[in-house]
Amino acid sequence: AKKFVEEAQKPFSVDLLVLSKTVPANYSIQWEQIPSVLQLQPSAFDPKHDRDYRSGPVHDSEQRRGNRPYYRPIGWYRHALSVIDKYPGDEHWLGMNNGPGEWPVAYHGTKKGAVSPIIKDGLNKAYVDAYRNQVVNDKGREAQYGIYLATHCNKGADAQRYAETFTVKMPPGMASEEAAYKVVLQCRYNINTFTEHSWTWKSEPFDPLAKEIRVYKMDGVRPYGVLLKKVNQNAEPNLTGVWICDDNEHNVQDAGTYFVSQFGEKVFWFGRQYKAPWNFANVSYGTLSRNDRKLSILWGDLPLGHNRLFGRLILEISPDYQMMVKGNGSDKIFGGTHFRRVPNQHLDKFEVDANMKWSTTTNDMSGCWKGNDGTKYAIGTCQNQIYWLGIDETNKRSHIGVGTISGNIITVNWGDIMSAQERFHGEIECQLQSPSKIIVVNCICGPFFTKELTKIS
Q1: What is the rounded CA–CA span in Å between residue 451 and residue 440?
Q2: Residues 414, 399: contact at Cβ < 8 Å?
Q3: Who is most buried in 43, 312, 320, 453, counting CB within 10 A?
Q4: Shortest CA distance to 150 belongs to which of 112, 113, 191, 199?
Q5: Is 113 helix (H, G, I), strand (E, B) or coil?
Q6: 450 or 7: whose pLDDT is higher?
Q7: Which domain of life is it from (predicted)?
Q8: Residue 345 has pLDDT above 70, yes or no
Q9: Are 321 and 340 in contact, with CB atoms under 8 Å apart?
């Protein structure tokens, strides 16, 4: 077998390339669609202080800011506001070491139309002030007005009553035409002008530790970050995830592992040997018929495995989208009959043996290729069909490509797989300049980054 890592700085950096759940570098693509909806200007932000909390631990430990409890906004992305020089003479309010003058952290969920006015002019007094009388009795008339914050972003400030869901039109090639978001402001508050109260809004799930913070000085709250989170609304059943396949025809349990991505009716996968006695790696592309719950796909092996087979497969899907069974009309050469969904944590353990397993000739396109952007490609061909797995040089993104070859023109449908966050898909048209060079001449839809592929081995 040939190494997949022979030439050009070794196309894969290690023999076993781990494809793990990582934060994709494409978040800016979706963020570009949002400022116009929130009526924000780039000058309002300080990107060097952005923070991605989306991949943080679900059960995060309590931290402290301003000597008060601080609960991080796990699952959200913070776009930092430009506030460093906004308050002359006060250099300590935004500290992180609980020193003198440091203000604690809390959250304020809001509607999309309120974000811009708040950033420009600050938060207004609450119209519904549940604790007003109690605080005025304790603090006096100076506390008659209050701004409300929440100690928790999740199951707190993100309640629909405060942080109303809004939709954003997404660019071509995204998994859907629109995406739903919530927005919460991450704030600091003056430790000398607040009172703390029990959580009152209990019509939605709330954290048992959540408290309401009432700040009774109108200049006592300083937003310093816009938190965004993508939310699912009435999501239809979806095949995206990790699946295990049994081969009942050959009495093999857990024969292969499959990594599936669905975009509307389009479905892509990458499959590889798990416990099967035969060595294989394949990719597929097909369409889902929701009416009769059938998935029709074209699949082809890659030179990452010994098998070199290609064919058509029809899978019948269970009503809960947790199982798929090989149906009538499928080619018999596919070694698998029953698929079942497994937890996505298997993504973290997935590895690809990067050695080429096929012997190829000079005119055979199958083999190891490298893109001008550093993406590595394992390509398999059969007659007029082409199949590939592409992995970028940072190992953060991977995609499947399946297409047809007509003369020197190659048309490929592609889709991202194995990403914990945003996934993209699209269609490209390529020109085969020689058996060792492919040029991408047209991105029909979707953001495809490689422009030229060169065969390595």
Answers
A1: 5
A2: yes
A3: 453
A4: 199
A5: helix
A6: 450
A7: Eukaryota
A8: no
A9: no
CA–CA dist 12, 169 (Å, integer)? 36
Q: What is the DSSP string of 147-182?
A: EEEES-IIIIIT-TTTS--EEEEPPTTBSSSEEEEE
Q: What is the pLDDT of residue 204?
A: 73
List all residues 6 or more positions away from 203 whose beta carbon is below 8 Å from its beta carbon.
161
- Distance between CA 305 and CA 308 in Å, rounded? 8
Residue boundaries of the structural domains of the chain: 1-22+237-457, 32-231
Could you report the per-residue pLDDT of 381-436, keeping only the tens digit for each?
988 999 999 988 776 678 999 999 999 999 999 998 865 446 788 999 999 999 89
Token representation of residue 191: 């430790």
* pLDDT for residue 320: 85
Q: Are 109 and 157 in contact (CB under 8 A)?
A: yes
Work out the pLDDT band at 190, boundaries 50, 70, 90: very high
Three-state DSSP class for 137?
helix
The amino acid at 452: E
- State whether residue 131 is helix, strand or coil: coil
What 3-state class would DSSP assign to 138? helix
Asked if 110 contacts 118 with a C-beta cutoff of 8 angstroms, the reply is: yes
pLDDT at site 3 = 39
What average pLDDT does this structure show over 360-384? 88
pTM of full prediction above 0.85: no
Compute, in degrees rounded to 10, the torsion defined by CA atoms 17, 346, 375, 386: 110
**pLDDT score recorded for residue 282:** 95
Please write down the HEC assignment for all residues of 230-292: EECCCCCCCCCEEEEEEECCCCEEEEEEEEEEEECCEEEEEEEECCCCCCCEEEEEEEEECCC
Phi, psi of 325 (to 5 degrees): -130, 135
Residue 52, strand partner residues: 77
* Domain 32-231: CATH class, spelled out: alpha beta
* Confidence (pLDDT) at 161: 83
Furthest C-alpha separation in the chain: 88
